[in-house]
Amino acid sequence: MKKTSVLSFVSVTGARKSTAERYLRDSGNNLQRAINQYYMENSNQQEENNSININDETSRTLNSLFNKYMDPTDNTITDIDGTIKYLEDMKIAPDELDSLTLLYFLKSKSMGIFLRQEFVSAWRKASISSIESMAPYIRLMTSGLLSRDPEFDLLYKFTYGFLLEQDGQKLLPYDLCIDYWRLLLIEGKYKGNASLVKRLDQWCVFIETEQQRGISRDTWDMFILFIREIILPDPEEMKEYDDMAAWPSVIDEYIQYLRENKLMV
């Protein structure tokens, strides 16, 4: 078994030397076949068109970069510490919208974790392999998402699923939803629209002080529609609101709250 093949396998995958030797032995010392077999067995997210090509300099560079952030116990994913370090290296704060855009771009399935496969695939498609070029790309992507409703809706809906912690979970904590409504809507999509931001802020106050219940996906998804159809055209009076329309009950309660507190005609 060639020492250079073992070193190349370790460099690309981040695996231990003993693991590299086993896969190379099983593949008849075919490096490409060994690497592909390793990823097929160690990542449920492997896609046929994402097979790692060890002759691709970009793939080697990206895999080496990923190795800096991978989970010490599972080299196919990052852990929380690795993701925080990645954000630090990109000079992106964890609580800013660019951080969420990054995890959306990398198809993160849960907070603070993303897959090696998605990392390599996404950055290869973007033709970027240096940490210095990644942050400007993500910041530009954020601007694009904020400026186009269909693209923003994908990010908005991604966020709810991304925040779920368990399979079968039906509700998100209301305070967590408030944090992300503020990030996505007040500090993001509608920043600068004072009348609309005022209503969004009142919504957050209502959820925090009056509603105080978990938020369903239906409520989360319908709220962005409520903004576009009811609040945005007429933030002051919201004349398009209809008591008989099929809005989630929490939205009807919000309107009642505004009327009772003389915050709306």
Q: What can you see in these coordinates?
A:
The chain has 265 residues and is mostly helical. The chain folds into 3 domains: 1-42; 56-145, EF-hand (Recoverin, domain 1, Orthogonal Bundle), CATH 1.10.238.10; 149-260, Orthogonal Bundle (Recoverin, domain 1), CATH 1.10.238. It has 13 helices and 4 strands. A two-stranded antiparallel sheet has the order 1-2. It has a two-stranded antiparallel ribbon with strand order 3-4. Mean pLDDT is 89; it is low at 44-50. Pfam families: Cullin_binding, UBA_4. Residues 57-259 form the DCUN1 domain. One of its GO terms (molecular function) is ubiquitin conjugating enzyme binding.
Topology of helices and strands:
Layout: H1 3-13, H2 17-26, H3 31-42, H4 57-67, E1 70-71, E2 74-78, H5 80-90, H6 97-105, H7 116-125, H8 131-147, H9 149-163, E3 171-172, H10 174-189, H11 194-211, E4 215-216, H12 217-231, H13 249-260
Helix pairs in contact: 1-2, 1-3, 2-3, 4-7, 6-8, 8-9, 9-10, 9-12, 10-11, 11-13
**For the residues shown, what is the average pLDDT?**
89
Helix content: 55-70%
Question: Ranges with pLDDT <50 over ≥5 residues?
Answer: 44-50
Provide a count of the helices.
13
Could you write a compact summary of the structure shown?
With 265 residues, this protein is mainly alpha-helical.
List keywords for this structure.
3 domains; ubiquitin conjugating enzyme binding; 4 strands; two-stranded antiparallel sheet; 265 residues; mainly alpha; 4% strand; 63% helix; Defective in cullin neddylation protein; Recoverin, domain 1
